Amino acid sequence: MGQLGGFKIHKRQDETNTKIKDRLKNYEEFTVPVPSNDATKQGSRCMDCGIPFCHSACPLGNLIPDFNDLVHKGEWKRALEILHATNNFPEFTGRLCPAPCEKACVLGIIDQPVSIENIEKMIVEKGFSEGWIVPKPPQIRTNKTVAVIGSGPAGLATAQQLNRAGHNVTVFERDDAIGGLLRYGIPNFKLDKKVIDRRVAILQQEGIVFKTNINVGVNYSVENLHNFDAVVLCGGATERRSLPIKGIDSKGVEQAMDYLTQQTKVLYNSEFEEEQIQATDKHVIVIGGGDTGSDCVGTANRQGAKSVTNFEIMPKPPQSRSEKTPWPFWPLQLKTSTSHEEGCDRNWLINTKEFITNEEGELTALKTVEVEWKTTTNQRPQLVEKPNTEKIWECDLALLALGFTGPKSSLAEQLGIERDARSNYKAEYGKYQTNVPNIFTAGDMRRGQSLIVWAIAEGREAALEVDKCLEGISNLPTKGKND
Ligand code: SF4
Questions:
Q1: What is the whole-number distance in angstroms between the Cα of residue 241 and the centre of ligand 1?
Q2: What's the 54 CA to ligand 1 centre distance in angstroms?
Q3: Domains, the chain, with CATH or none
Q4: Is 275 within 8 Å of 299 (Cβ atoms)?
Q5: In the chain, is it the N or the C terminus that has fewer CB atoms within a 10 Å radius of its CB?
Q6: pLDDT tens for residues 168-214?
């Protein structure tokens, strides 16, 4: 370790953001990187803990104290190797991960935690700008073929790992571009699509074949999958949760994911022809917190909404805990995103009762009631309505950001794959193998809606199991170990 105790000298330094009035003029990423010299100081804040809780908290098992130290010493290229050893796509996690590693960082007990996520992003961006990230095709090819269905983070990680093992991998994507949720579910101002394109270009040069506009089971028969030695289903959890109340089908009540997808497509396709959901000059209410709700807030502000309101459910009140537990409660804290900072009236513990429309069936208002958490004996806390708190909110565009309930695809039924109690595709724990031989599943399709970092982790682990299935043994790395 280069310097222990750097945290006593250097305060945490994060990326800064451009001014709100400037960034609202466009859809570009708006972060300003920490200067390289200051970044090395940030690495020195790591205490190289005997038990690095950051490492345990990371689903990928990232070797965090190791790359912190290398950054501190200015050994960026080696830091990139260590980072890539456990994480195929640090440019995605470095931008989008809620960083459970930082919540677990021991330094957080007495000071601001080490800025691990930002260090990760700086390492990978330096890697790209210096030209250190280049295609590494396998030296030997097996004669085995694998179909990966879905090109989100789980599918891409699965594909890259299996390609490294020498297998011939084809990735099928139902949309018109690679990336899954990364491509159309996350606005440009949080993830510039060039970041996906430059990584996909490397994967292609490594030998992975990508096929877009192919929706397996819809415009491509599942019978074709029999031509592959193994299949990995990484189609995500895309079934949206709805709000079955009066007026749900009104003009002006839209799903958040449709709204975000359209806006990103418009940016990249000047000939986009669908009727677009627009927030311009409208009173917009986003129902649902979380990242998708926040992304709608940011997008509506960029489109020039007259007002943007967000309804969120406050987390359950914290349970009692031992005084010996020093960490702050997590993930129960309320998060203020950069989109919220850009302008939004946030309201918690509001339940929508009705979408009110005019005679043409167009949305004009929402009727709501306040709710509160209540616990009665032998019961979990429940949300109950507060009497006499009904309210009418003027609204001409309501966006539903209520999460996802599981995979939408009917592939399970077509392939004879069992689902679990939550309707996700079922696989043997830790093996990713479904009940159908040589068909595996990973990511949100298996575990339900989750974090990008979990999708990458599952993709890597599933690839290891597929490789073992095809070859009997595997040299692919397991969690938190070097390649
Ligand atoms: Fe460094 Fe924090 Fe990890 Fe400890 S827990 S090794 S201080 S990053």
A1: 38
A2: 6
A3: 6-129 (1.10.1060.10), 145-238+405-471 (3.50.50.60), 242-319+330-402 (3.50.50.60)
A4: no
A5: C
A6: 999 999 999 999 999 999 999 999 999 999 999 999 999 999 999 99
